[in-house]
Automatic annotation (TrEMBL):
Signal sequence, start to end: none
Lineage start: Bacteria, Bacillati, Bacillota, Bacilli, Bacillales
Molecular function as annotated in GO: glycerol-3-phosphate dehydrogenase [NAD(P)+] activity
Family: Belongs to the NAD-dependent glycerol-3-phosphate dehydrogenase family.
Pfam families according to UniProt: NAD_Gly3P_dh_C (PF07479), NAD_Gly3P_dh_N (PF01210)
UniProt protein name: Glycerol-3-phosphate dehydrogenase [NAD(P)+]
Binding site for NADPH: S11, W12, H32, Y49, K106, A141, R256, E282
Intracellular or extracellular location(s): Cytoplasm
Superkingdom of source: Bacteria
Species annotation: Gracilibacillus marinus
Active site: K192
EC id: 1.1.1.94
Entry keywords, A to Z: Cytoplasm, Lipid biosynthesis, Lipid metabolism, NAD, NADP, Nucleotide-binding, Oxidoreductase, Phospholipid biosynthesis, Phospholipid metabolism
Domain Glycerol-3-phosphate dehydrogenase NAD-dependent N-terminal, first and last residues per copy: 3-160
Amino acid sequence: MANVTVLGAGSWGTALAMVLCDNHHRVRLWTHNERHKIEMERTKQNKKYLPDVTLPDELEFEHDLSEALHSVDVIILVVPTKAIRETCKKIIPFINSNTIIVHGSKGIEPQTHMRISEMIAQELTEAKYHSIVALSGPSHAEEVSLRHPTTVTAASSNLNSARYTQDLFMTDYFRVYTSKDIVGVELGGALKNIIALGAGISDGLGYGDNAKAALITRGLAEITRLATVKGANPLTFIGLSGVGDLIVTCTSVHSRNWRAGNMLGKGHRLETVLEEMGMTVEGVRTTEAVHQLAQKLNVKMPITNGIYDVIFNKKSAKKVVDDLMSRDRTTEIEDIAAILTNRYSD
Ligand SMILES: NC(=O)C1=CN([C@@H]2O[C@H](COP(=O)(O)OP(=O)(O)OC[C@H]3O[C@@H](n4cnc5c(N)ncnc54)[C@H](O)[C@@H]3O)[C@@H](O)[C@H]2O)C=CC1
Ligand SMILES: O=C(CO)COP(=O)(O)O
């Protein structure tokens, strides 16, 4: 049994805390909002983020970080990407060289273009901690909280820590694989949110399954193209963090990114969409970050650029699709081969 603290009591942090309770760890769930802590303690529910789910009796709720992190073995960091840095700053006094930090967030930071583990490492430069693990894969919180079969990957440059994370979470309904390719796993998890926005936009425009299959497949090609330039293993993208997470996010009504895209495709304004959702839609900031990064690295990402234009330049979604369809003719297999060779020509 381990002492585990989940930082971030949104839908994903809560679902992961439930998995850990099923594995009989001591689990504390920390929220930055004191009223939220009191409400969860009183009702045994997380009404806003995971309605209709009863939380386990053993789950402890915390608002005070010193209480939450006292004698902790593993921290599960599941706040939105924009809150990663401030949360890391707050935990410095409570961690030591044995603390493993597992994160479940999916995003890239605009301007720095950093992945989550890079942001964590940068914020904790002066602090002592053991290692960082990314937990990612096709996993909607709503289904995990119902104990429906789910598979994810624990990735770390420290394979022992990835294996430790596998043991920590693995249950009969939550299967965890390990990987050393943290670059690929984090980029796959973050960049699929851009394509999910696109799938939602396409559905909002009334296009069908052909268009969505095209977005998923060619989206996978451009994710792999950028990620291999950043040092990822291209094979990671035929796995859970690539094709797996693209399928679940582009085709499920649970996806906040798909839902936001769907409203954009129907002509709603971005501000209205985000306000109505009231939950984290990581794809918007990640689109900004990846649009910048692709330009900097000179990587072709036509779908991402089109989605950027819809979100940030108010270009009509229909015009973006027309422009994507009328780009210069090209080959398919040679393009994919070029992606793979790029990796091995380093
Ligand atoms: N919901 C899901 O099914 C999955 C979500 N994720 C990722 O998990 C991360 C968190 O997403 P969700 O839990 O879905 O978001 P959510 O929108 O359900 O909840 C966000 C939580 O973060 C808290 N929060 C906001 N600002 C904060 C701050 N400055 N400091 C501390 N806490 C803060 C909110 O109070 C809320 O409890 C995202 O990066 C998302 O991409 C990954 C896999 C599945
Ligand atoms: O990452 C997810 C599923 O794997 C959740 O996706 P959304 O953030 O779009 O809901």
